[in-house]
């Protein structure tokens, strides 16, 4: 079983090469918001567990106030690197880096918080949902009582119809793209609003199967050639002012197998299903889109703004 999981983990992005961790450390959006969420949540003297620690930076954020941080990492090269890096940083000694599988490890004592950042757009490729659901079941058996607070606390996912240009100096290449949130180019035209398709609340049990069917009203005529998938991670809920600390992933744009012309006022029906932690292809191959009506007064179902 372990051998099978190791092979799958390497393919699905669990063993992220060290050079990519530099990009993650340079991602100001990711770093600032995780730091803010951890500072908001982790109180003085807390016990913290991080599942999938990488360089150990998120564990180090927690160590600024926590009494003890258990940082679990499956990649032996990253275990050595995290230990080296933490030794260079003040309070790094509060973090114990443990070479273990997040699917099997449990801390030796109850913890107050669990940090887990195995996150990809649409919750694909990496094992965030499966790792946390597995952990909750095992933890409850060893430590009956209150469950730790998870960082992130929830994930919100949405889909949006696009007219996406795939012309590269005359070379037509409809392939997957990742886009920076808030960056607008003439190559991308939003044909309708975003439609919410899934909320994952880590305080509740979560099924690994993600399945959705819904209608979206086309607001601008064009060539529907892609769907944009948007993932917002609710890192922490700030109760005193009813706000949240969020991390918005890069947008993922998947080309449709059969683009279609659409007109403003038409309603498209979108459907797909995939397994959390599965491949991008598993989602792309499951997408079905069809025009179902041209009712000018129809509204997109479960639509919301993502900022």
Textual characterization of the structure:
Strand 2, helix 5 and strand 3 form a beta-alpha-beta unit. The chain is an alpha+beta fold and 307 residues long. The protein has two domains: 116 residues, Rossmann fold (3-Layer(aba) Sandwich); 140 residues, Hnrnp arginine n-methyltransferase1 (Distorted Sandwich). The N terminus is likely disordered. The strands form four sheets. Strands 6, 9, 10, 11, 13, 14 and 15 form a seven-stranded antiparallel β-sheet that branches. The chain has a five-stranded parallel β-sheet with strand order 3-2-1-4-5, with helices on both faces. The protein has a three-stranded antiparallel β-sheet with strand order 12-16-17.
> Under CATH, the topology of the largest domain is which?
Hnrnp arginine n-methyltransferase1
What is the beta-strand fraction?
35-45%
Q: Residue ranges: pLDDT <50 for 5 or more in a row? A: 1-13, 296-304
Indicate the mean pLDDT.
91
CATH superfamily of the largest domain: Hnrnp arginine n-methyltransferase1
* Rg calculated over all Cα atoms: 21 Å
The first-level CATH class of the largest domain is given as Mainly Beta
Oligomeric state of shown chains: single chain
CATH hierarchy: architecture of the largest domain: Distorted Sandwich
Q: Spell the H/E element sequence.
A: HHHEHEHEEHEEEEEEEEEEEEHE
Largest sheet composition:
7 strands, antiparallel
C-alpha termini separation: 41 Å
Classify the secondary structure makeup into a structural class. alpha+beta
Helical coverage, percent range: 10-25%
């Amino acid at each position: 079983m372990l051998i099978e999981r190791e092979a799958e983990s390497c393919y699905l992005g669990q063993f992220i090469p060290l050079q990519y961790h530099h990009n993650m450390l340079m991602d100001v959006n990711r770093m600032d918001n995780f730091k803010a969420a951890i500072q908001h949540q982790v109180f003085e003297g807390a016990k913290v567990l991080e599942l999938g620690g990488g360089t150990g930076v998120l564990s180090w954020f927690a160590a600024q106030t926590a009494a003890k941080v258990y940082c679990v990492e499956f990649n032996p090269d990253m275990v050595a690197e995290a230990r080296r890096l933490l030794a260079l940083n003040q309070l790094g000694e509060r973090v114990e880096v443990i070479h273990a599988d997040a699917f099997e490890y449990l801390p030796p004592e109850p913890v107050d918080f669990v940090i887990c950042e195995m996150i990809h757009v649409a919750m694909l490729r990496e094992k965030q949902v499966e790792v946390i659901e597995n952990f909750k079941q095992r933890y409850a058996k060893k430590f009956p009582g209150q469950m730790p607070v998870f960082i992130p606390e929830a994930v919100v996912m949405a889909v949006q119809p696009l007219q996406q240009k795939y012309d590269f100096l005359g070379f037509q290449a409809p392939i997957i793209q990742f886009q920076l949130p808030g960056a607008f180019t003439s190559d991308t035209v939003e044909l309708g609003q975003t439609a919410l398709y899934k909320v994952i609340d880590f305080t509740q049990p979560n099924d690994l199967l993600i399945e959705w069917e819904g209608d979206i009203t086309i607001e601008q005529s064009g060539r529907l050639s892609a769907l944009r998938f948007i993932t917002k991670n609710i890192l922490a809920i700030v109760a005193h002012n009813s706000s949240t600390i969020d991390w918005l992933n890069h947008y993922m744009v998947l080309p449709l197998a059969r683009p279609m012309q659409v007109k403003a006022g038409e309603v498209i029906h979108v459907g797909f299903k995939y397994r959390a932690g599965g491949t991008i292809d598993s989602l792309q191959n499951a997408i079905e889109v069809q025009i179902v009506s041209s009712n000018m007064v129809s509204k997109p179902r479960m639509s919301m703004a993502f900022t």
